[in-house]
C-alpha cells in the first residue's frame, strides 16, 4: 500500500470541487452525476467481489428495489422521499440477509447462477406488478425535498452525489483497513485457513452481501429521484453485468479502481457514439483488449508498474 491511502481520496475530492465550474454544459454535468452514482454502487460491489471473493450477477436487482421502493412509497402512499429511501435500503438489506446463507453455501459458477436467478426474479416482479410499478413502461418519481426545499436541477444533484461518493470512498478505505476488512481478504484467500484462525466465514459473507445490497439500494433511490422516472431496465441482467464489468476493468480489490472503472465505462458509450451503429462492437473490443493486456484491472496494473499501492 502507499504510505497515505487517502491521497487518492483527496484527489477525488479536489476534482469533484473543480469539475462543475469547468464542464461546458448540462450534458456533461449529467454525465458526471451518473458516473458518481455508478461509482458508489461499484464500490459496494467491489467489497463483495474483489475483497471478499463472492460473485454477484444479479446486483442490479437491489438497485431496482431501492428505485421502486422510493417511487412506490412516495407516489402511492405519500411517504417522504427520505423515509421511502430508508425503507428501500432496509428491504434490500433484509432480502440480502435472508438469501445470503443458502446462496453462499454454493461455490464458483453455482454461486454465480444463484445470484443471477435472484436478480432475474426481482426484474420479473417489477415488470409484472404493473398496478404498482407501471410495468414495462415504468413510473414517474416525485421530486426529492429536504426541509421544505425541493432538490431540482443538475447542480443540486451534483453536489449531493459528490458528497455521497466522497463519503463512500472514505468509508470503504476505512473498512478494508479494519479488522473486518482483513477478515474479508482472508476468506477471499482461503476460507479453510480463515476458519482455522477463527474467522466466522458465513457471518462475514452475509454482512458484506447485505452492505453491498444497501449501497446499491440507496443509489437506486438517488437515481430514481434524480431522473424523475424509473423503468425495469434499471434492474435487468445486462445492468448487473455492466456493474461487474466496471469492477473488473477498474481493478478488483481496489477502491480507486472501482471509481475509475465506473467513470470510464459510464463515459465510454458516449465517446463511441461517432461509430454510428458499431458502438457495441467497439465497446466489446476495448473491454477485450483491456482484459488481455491488463487482466488485474487498470489501477492494480498501473500501481504495480509504478511501484505504488492502491
From TrEMBL:
Quote the subcellular location field of this record. Cell membrane
Would the keyword Membrane be found if you checked this record's keyword annotation?
A: yes
The protein in question is named: Branched-chain amino acid ABC transporter permease
Q: How does it sit in the membrane?
A: Multi-pass membrane protein
According to its UniProt entry, this protein's organism is Rhodoferax lithotrophicus
Q: Which Pfam families match?
A: BPD_transp_2 (PF02653)
Task: Give the primary localization class.
Answer: membrane
Which keywords belong to this entry?
A: Cell membrane, Membrane, Transmembrane, Transmembrane helix
Q: Where are the transmembrane segments?
A: 6-23, 35-57, 77-97, 109-126, 156-176, 206-227, 247-268, 280-299
Amino acid at each position: 500500500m502507499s504510505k497515505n491511502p487517502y491521497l487518492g481520496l483527496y484527489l477525488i475530492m479536489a476534482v469533484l470541487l473543480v469539475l462543475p465550474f469547468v464542464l461546458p454544459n448540462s450534458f456533461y454535468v449529467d454525465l458526471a452525476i451518473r458516473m458518481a452514482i455508478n461509482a458508489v454502487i461499484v464500490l459496494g460491489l467491489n467489497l463483495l467481489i474483489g475483497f471478499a471473493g463472492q460473485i454477484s450477477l444479479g446486483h442490479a436487482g437491489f438497485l431496482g428495489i431501492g428505485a421502486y421502493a422510493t417511487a412506490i412509497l412516495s407516489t402511492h402512499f405519500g411517504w417522504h422521499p427520505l423515509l421511502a429511501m430508508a425503507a428501500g435500503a432496509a428491504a434490500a438489506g433484509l432480502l440480502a440477509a435472508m438469501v445470503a446463507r443458502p446462496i453462499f453455501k454454493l461455490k464458483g459458477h453455482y454461486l454465480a447462477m444463484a445470484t443471477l436467478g435472484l436478480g432475474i426474479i426481482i426484474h420479473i416482479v417489477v415488470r409484472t406488478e404493473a398496478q404498482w410499478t407501471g410495468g414495462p413502461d415504468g413510473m414517474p418519481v416525485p421530486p426529492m425535498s429536504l426541509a421544505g426545499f425541493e432538490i431540482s436541477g443538475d447542480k443540486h444533484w451534483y453536489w449531493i452525489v459528490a458528497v455521497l461518493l466522497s463519503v463512500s470512498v472514505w468509508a470503504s478505505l476505512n473498512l478494508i483497513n479494519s479488522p473486518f476488512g482483513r477478515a474479508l481478504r482472508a476468506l477471499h484467500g482461503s476460507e479453510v485457513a480463515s476458519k482455522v484462525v477463527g474467522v466466522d466465514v458465513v457471518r462475514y459473507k452475509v454482512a458484506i452481501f447485505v452492505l453491498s445490497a444497501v449501497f446499491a439500494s440507496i443509489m437506486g433511490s438517488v437515481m430514481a429521484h434524480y431522473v424523475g422516472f424509473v423503468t425495469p431496465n434499471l434492474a435487468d441482467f445486462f445492468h448487473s453485468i455492466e456493474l461487474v464489468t466496471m469492477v473488473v476493468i477498474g481493478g478488483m480489490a481496489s477502491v480507486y479502481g472501482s471509481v475509475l472503472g465506473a467513470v470510464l465505462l459510464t463515459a465510454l458509450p458516449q465517446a463511441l457514439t461517432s461509430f454510428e451503429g458499431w458502438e457495441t462492437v467497439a465497446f466489446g473490443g476495448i473491454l477485450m483488449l483491456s482484459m488481455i493486456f491488463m487482466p488485474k484491472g487498470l489501477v492494480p496494473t498501473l500501481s504495480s508498474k509504478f511501484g505504488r499501492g492502491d
